[in-house]
Amino acid sequence: MPDVLSFPAIFGLCYLAFGVLALTVERHWRDLVGSPRVLPRRTVRRLRCAAALCMAAALSAAVHWDGAGFGILLWVLALTAGALAVSATVTWLCRPARGRTR
Which of 9, 70, 78, 89 has the most crowded CB, counting CB atoms within 10 A? Predict the structure, then answer.
């Protein structure tokens, strides 16, 4: 894979990981999925495992493409950017849902 695509791939994995982690929060699950049911503990555990695997894959890709020193720094930056992007996305998507319930 060309180096130009390495950061978008790493960022995408981090975004996916934090998106899955956001779904494990009961309030976000209710707002985003629209299900009134409580999220089963088994599903929460599976989602958290999937998020950990995505983060590990992103770290592995970053170290593979850019070496240990810069790869870890790139991974931390991608984690930060992914977390900010997911928080903005969840806020943007949940705003209309809350407006309907009031």
Answer: 78
Residues 21 and 44: their CA atoms lie apart, in Å, by 9
Check residue 5 and report its DSSP letter.
G
Do residues 62 and 75 touch, judged by C-beta distance below 8 A? yes
User: Is the alpha carbon torsion for 46, 48, 54, 60 positive or negative?
Assistant: negative
CA distance 80 to 77: 5
Give the 3-state secondary structure of 15-30: HHHHHHHHHCCHHHHH
- Residues 24-47: pLDDT tens digits? 988 888 888 877 788 889 999 999
> Quick one: pLDDT at residue 27?
85
The pLDDT value given to residue 98: 55
User: How far is 32 from 19, CA to CA, in rounded Å?
Assistant: 11
d(CA 19, CA 48): 10
Is the pLDDT at 59 greater than 90, yes or no?
Answer: yes
